[in-house]
Fold this sequence. Notes:
By secondary structure, the protein is an alpha+beta fold. 40% of the residues lie in helices and 13% in strands. It contains 18 helices and 17 strands. Strands 1, 2, 5, 6, 7, 8, 9, 10, 11, 12 and 13 form an eleven-stranded mixed beta sheet that branches. The chain has a two-stranded antiparallel ribbon with strand order 3-4. α3 packs across α4 (87-94), α6 crosses α17 (484-508) and α12 (265-278) packs parallel to α17 (484-508). The radius of gyration is 40 Å and the shape is elongated. The chain starts with 11 loop residues before the first helix and ends in a 26-residue tail after the last strand.
Amino acid sequence: MSQLRRPRRISTQEALSMLQSMSDCESDGGDVGDLGFQNENVVTDSSSDEDATALAPVNPPLQRCTRRRAVNYVIEQDSSNTEATSDEEDTTHASPPHNKRQKVADVGTIPGSTEKAKDGTVWFHCQVGDVFAHETPQTAFSGSGGPTEFARRKITSRLQSFLCLVDMTMLLTIRDCTVHEGRRTNPSWQVSVFELMAFLAILFRRAAKGYVGSMQLMWTNRFGNPDIKAIMPRNRFFEIKRYLRFDNKDTRKERIQTDKFAAISDIWQRFVQNCVSSYSPGQHVTVDEQVFPSKVRCPFLQYIASKPNMFGIKFWIAADLETKFMCNAIPYLGKDPTRPTGERLSENVVLKLMEPFMDQGRTVTLNNFFTSLSLANRLLKRKTTLLGAINKNRQELPATAKETSDHQLYSTQVFTSGRALLTVYTTKKKSVCLLSTIHQKVEIVDTRKQKPNAVVDYNHFKCCSDIMEQKLRNYSVRAGTRRWPMAVFYNLLDLAAANAHILYTACTGSKESRQLFMLELAEELQNCLLQEKAEGEERKQQCREMRVSQKKKTQCQVRILCNNNRSTKVCVHCRKYTCAKCRKDSPWECGNC
């Protein structure tokens, strides 16, 4: 037998109000049950046994909270002069709303009102469609996107577009460091620049062909490529790969104390400088992170669970929206001692990446890691606008923008603070906050889901980094290695090939695919070595003929000053035997020539 609950105690004011209501109902011919107290455990006098039985406390305890919420809701309806006609209607009106997103908006979101954030920032509530009068006029883009004049004058072929980014100075530095490393074990070991270019040609050919197995399979009869066999023997290729270095190992310990990236820092900085001087981005630039997949032993290796490969070396990259050209890049090395005290890492990274492109009216698109109100104000001082998602835990955001559980589905809230415009858009899963200094007003442009223009523009601008990283992974020279400088060099070659393709198509008007471009680039790189080999064979043949001719001794064929003297040397021009009396100055040439 279930235990009966004790009757609920009521206060004196509640009893007086109940009696007053009962008297009003009796005068109107009503019933006590019309007040909505039929489900409460209140003991009242009644002449009917059925009413007493109905008032008995036999309800299970699980329905207690629901009945109390129902009673409170009915009382609110009664206070607004709404009369219930039956018990069923009371139950229907008493049920609370199930969709929390359909509740009425808070009083603090009234247009024209102000709200102060935790850090003291004052935000003004505005309506969708209002035009905001900024303190300064809208910044106009004054630059020009595309290859620079230096690149347009120099680029006439695929090889020249690649050498704009990976120039001969870098190749000579790599050659010298590689030779220095090879002579540690073999004092007579040597490699030329053209042989190093052929080494790169094999890597690009392997990436364009889509090899996924071991590199050694490229020289086999079944899986190999006859073109690769003609470029370089397999043992020579792996010998160069073994000794490949990018700095002087003898002085690395001194440099690594102040630069963790010292093993390849000079080559990387030279490459980034060439990218900046060869291409000028358009109006919209996207800043994001790029993780090169690798599991090498590295002091700054990153683990990111959201990435497909999870382990890799992180780079901060600024890319052009229109062409996906990598404009600037910074490796993430952990704590930076040169960063000013009190400055956020995100702001420091964005200002470094955008430094060559400031003061020209460009717009930078950021994700929620970088975006902040202080960064937007600092960029405005350099005539650069911002558009990015912002975290809700930022102290500069108003409380109304963070608590979005009471907002309607596909609703938009607008806040302004100075020239910054904050847009809060509510979707099915979550609500997003976008900070913008480029928009002058927020208006609905997508009628299906009521998306504001800030959300649509952000989705369009933000895809730049994702598309660029997808292009890099489709045709990558990445291979297995245990040295992190080699992994960084693979990433450098991927970026160089993608940027060289963009420069070549922009300067020459070609529309060939990136895969075909890499194959043709590998062909031009290997031709340099083949031409050097041909010239070397020709020189050897000339030396061989010269040695044979020097052993032969015959009469002088010129006979200008001599009397049938005998000679073993020939003129370098007419190839006639000339004695010492009939010759001129060095090189050996006869008096007639």
